[in-house]
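Hi again,

Forgot to attach this to my earlier email, sorry! This is the prediction with cobalt (II) ion bound. I've pasted everything inline since the attachment limit keeps bouncing my files.
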Amino acid sequence: MIYLKTPAEVEQMRAANDLCSRTLGEVAKWIQPGVTTRKLDTIAREFIRDNGGKPACLGYQGFPGTLCIEVNETVVHGFPSSRVLEEGDIVGTDLVVEKDGFMGDSCYTFAVGQVDEKVMNLCRTTLESLYVGIEACVPGKRIGDIANAIQTYCEKRGYSVVREMCGHGIGRHMHEDPEVPNYGRRGTGAVIRNGMCIAIEPMINLGSRNIVIERDGWTCRTKDRKPSAHYEHTLAIVDGEVQVLTTFDYIHQAIGNRFELPAITETKPSEE
Ligand code: MF3
Ligand code: CO
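Structure tokens for the complex follow:
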């Protein structure tokens, strides 16, 4: 069942998502060779608590971190650990923050120092595909239109789309209906309408789309151990308008925009 939000609830979603974005901006300041992923996790946890939020992943079905940590071949749900980031790694930090009963969800894949150009291009395309998905999120169209736009954009460029993991509705719960896959057919799935809040999160691989879950029961990596990238924004549809509730501005203010994307409008009017 899809829970539609009132405009007042969307304002609460905005606050939770802003805290999520600001937290990733703090994490960004620490990304460099030599830092442990546990340090990143501690920075996030303390910043959230200092700002009146709660780390929603911590303890969720037993998950042991505030951040999901995604180094190189890790697709999603990696644990923070004593692992030290090295020059040439990429690291995704996926974060869900709860504030006053509402959830904010965002993910950003960072480059650690100089990263191989092939891997940077994977990250760039994945980030671009998130915005392609957001462009395809139009009131009156369907979830499958978002999914198909992301899939087409990435596969045309030679990358593969992870199918087992999806974006999702979000609100008082981290995961609500509808599922928002990153592959699929246009004109299928739920109709996009006022009050919907969804998280769009392409997970894109350099090699094959196949994944395996490690023996810890959580860590999801590519089967061929080639790199995977992941970016995520949370959106709300209000008055026929799509509003992006998370932003990468705090990250880009902290470390610059390595992907040299054009300036992105985080709020756009619908096509009417
Ligand atoms: N942040 C993930 C998502 O985008 C979910 C985290 S799973 C958890 O949906 F168990 F770690 F919380
Ligand atoms: Co999510």
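Residues 262-272 have pLDDT under 50 and may be disordered. The helical segments are 7-28, 37-50, 117-135, 143-156, 249-255.

That should be everything now.

G.
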